[in-house]
Amino acid sequence: MSHPTLPFPEAIEKQLKNCGLDTAVVARHRKNVLLHLSADSPRHFPILDTCRLDNGGICRLPTQKVSPRDRKSIVGFVPAAGASSRYLAPVISLMEAVTTRNMEACRQELDLLRSTSFLDCPLPASIKDLVALLGTPAKIIPEELAHRVISELESPKALYPISLDGTTFLAMKSAEHQAMERLSGQVFICPPLYADRFLTHLNQVSNKNSRLKIRIYEQDVSLATTRFDAQGSVSVDHQGQVSTVPSGHGALLELMPRVTQDFEGARGIFIRNIDNVSGTFRAPNEASQLFLDAFSWTLGQMDELRQSVIKNDLPCNALIANKILDFWGQAPEAPDNAVFTLLTSLFHATPESINLDLKTVIQRPLVIMGQVPNTAHDIGGTCVFTNVDGHPQKLCLEVPHASSSDRANFLENPAKATHFNPVFVASEIPTAEGLKAWNGNPFWLIAKKHWRGSESYYQESILYEMLGSSHYVNLIFVEVPRLVFNPHKTLKDAALRAKGDWGLE
Fold first, then answer.
1. Are 97 and 106 in contact (CB under 8 A)?
2. Which residues pair with 425 in a beta bridge?
3. Is 248 left (phi over 0), alpha (psi -120 to 50) or beta?
4. CATH 3.90.550.10 fits 10-84+165-485, yes or no
5. In Å, how far are 100, 122, 484 from 498, measured between CA atoms?
6. How far is CA 408 from the centre of its chain?
7. Does residue 81 contact residue 273 with C-beta atoms inside 8 Å?
8. SS3 of 402, please?
């Protein structure tokens, strides 16, 4: 087995650099792959307790009104590079039949889809055309139609329709942004080479009164990593070229500083999954805006507190810290303890880190994560108190990092896992310099895939664990109403939906 500190062969290192990859980062990924392969058991973060309202791990959303001068500029930031393969699983066999242009196989697959009501779901125009064709005595699928079907089914999920009239996830998310007066712009992350298509589509569906500037960022090879074999060597294709692969949503951190360049005055980003659809109705809109107001106001107070800490103005420090504590429903503290209580009781920073370097801790990015109440049927990631590599912290835990016993005792127990998922996230925009704090972070998984006849491995970093760790950010978990949580994981989640069902005209 290759030693993880050995350099890459000269030809491979040259290729990595030509791709725009940081060889030091790729070397760290190789080290983690080898660690994963040599480990006796998976990497788990032990759950000490779940975060709940009754133990202060989760806060209630403040309802205190804030004035316009208290609001910071916030930009919608939507990861939209994900493939639609899982969402489209029921029609994969149909796509395979179309690829071979086998009419009989297509008709059999269509009959199966019809019997299970999948034709009631929003489908691309090409699929509708195919359905019409299969209802005729035609004996062959025209090449142009076959090409359109395959192209649309291979598109990212953002371009897939969510309503029967053809409104896409991308168009729906943009409409939601337009309806939220707290947002000052919107960014969508797309796969490589899709930026023009995303922008063209958004321009087509936006009305003339659209007020938000749009930017499209590609999750390109600069945010990728490489596949490795079981010996830690970089995998290459049949032409000897290194094989790159997206390195997970955690890589999107690298794109965040661009928001401050593209949107004047931007201080925060509002992250929501492309398939979590609330529409433009008043209730979810107001809940989202209340969430953003709480973030904006708290960020403004943190700006003032940071300046006060730099000046060592102890009375002012206490005044601001107590204002924040009161806003979030916590009792004010004596002047000598106010800042310490704010950092340990609300943000859950460790006393050791504060005593070591208060100014560094106070400068950590502010992050607020919205959690929905568990219906007693949700099983998945949740916010917990844990210990990661010796660092006690509050963490937005992903399921693969929980042991089977912790899953049974905590995540699958609705009395303990009282809340579920980060529905959306408001994050202060980290600076390019500030991103270095995450170098070597432990929030990654190793993916195992079958590639070119053998097993390959690569690292994926996890955005919500990275932003959802009190060891790296000043973090608040807050309860938000269930009505803002409408994920679409299968085609049937949108069955018979028209755009009017989401408040669109």
1. yes
2. 271, 369
3. left
4. yes
5. 33, 9, 19
6. 25
7. no
8. coil
Mode of pairing for the β-strands spanning 391-397 and 183-190: unpaired
Residues with Cβ within 8 Å of 143's Cβ and at least 6 positions away in sequence, in order, are 101
Residues in Cβ contact with 147 at an 8 Å cutoff, skipping those fewer than 6 apart: none
Six-digit token pair at 119? 């034709």
Domain ranges of the chain: 10-84+165-485, 89-154
Q: Within 10 A of 409 (CB to CB), how many other CB atoms are there? A: 15
Task: At 484, list the tokens.
Answer: 């803002």
Q: Is 486 exposed, middle or buried (0-12, 13-18, 19+ CB in 10 A)?
A: middle
Burial class (CB in 10 A: 0-12, 13-18, 19+), 505: exposed
Q: Are 420 and 399 in contact (CB under 8 A)?
A: no
d(CA 151, CA 234): 30
Strand duo 47-50 + 382-388: pairing: antiparallel
Structure tokens of 201? 């589509």
Strand extents, DSSP E, 405-494: 419-428, 444-451, 454-461, 474-479
pLDDT of residue 353: 94
Note whether 465 and 133 are within 8 A (CB).
Answer: no
The three-state DSSP-derived secondary structure of 248-315 is CHHHHHHHCHHHHHHCCCEEEEEEECCCECCCCCHHHHHHHHHHHHHHHHHHHHHHHHHHHHHHCCHH
Which residues 6+ apart lie within 8 Å of 118 measured at CB? 90, 91, 491, 492
Mark the ranges of the chain whose per-residue pLDDT is less than 50.
1-4
Tell me which DSSP letter residue 189 carries.
Answer: E
| Percent composition of the chain: helix, strand, coil (DSSP 3-state, to 5) | 45, 20, 35
